[in-house]
Amino acid sequence: MGRILAIDYGTKRCGLAVTDELQIIASGLTTVETKHLLSYLKKYVSFEKVDLFVVGLPKQMNNSASESEVHIQQFLVQLAKAIPNIPVQRVDERFTSKMAFQTMIDSGLKKKQRQNKALVDEISATLILQSYLTSKS
Q: Would you state the CATH architecture of domain 3-136?
């Protein structure tokens, strides 16, 4: 069994999270500048078996697509061309940034550490992945 890799896509940087090989535990992986994301993913899947990409689906409170969905759709087309053998699943990502920030507070991070947007993105990706794992079981 391979890993599941989650992407919290952003126009500047993307948070990444990954499961263990048994697809039980979601862990933050890293944050990558968006312009380097495809090359990072190609390299990652060349040395790790990945069964699925989980990509956040940003929605407004009224369930309509968020403005960033346009950019995500463009990325998904590029991803399908670059790595066609790994399917993509979308997961509602509403509130993940707020939940990530609260997680940072709850874990006792100092204010300066909580201002690290890259860490927020990585935690958000982990929350997206955990949401997928929970819905799957």
A: 2-Layer Sandwich (3.30)
Contact 55, 13 (CB under 8 A): no
What is the overall mean pLDDT for the chain? 86
Highest mean pLDDT among 102-106, 118-122, 130-134: 130-134
User: Which alpha helices (H) appear in the chain, and where do they start and end?
Assistant: 37-47, 69-82, 96-106, 111-114, 117-136
Q: Distance between CA atoms of 118 and 87, rounded to whole angstroms?
A: 26
Q: Which residue has the higher pLDDT, 81 or 107?
A: 81
| CB of 38 closer than 8 Å to CB of 79 | yes
Q: Quick check: helix, strand or coil at residue 50?
A: strand
Average pLDDT value for residue range 87-102: 74
Locate the domains of the chain by residue range.
Answer: 3-136
Beta-carbon-side half-sphere exposure of residue 127 (alpha carbons within 13 Å): 21
Q: Is the pLDDT of residue 68 over 60?
A: yes
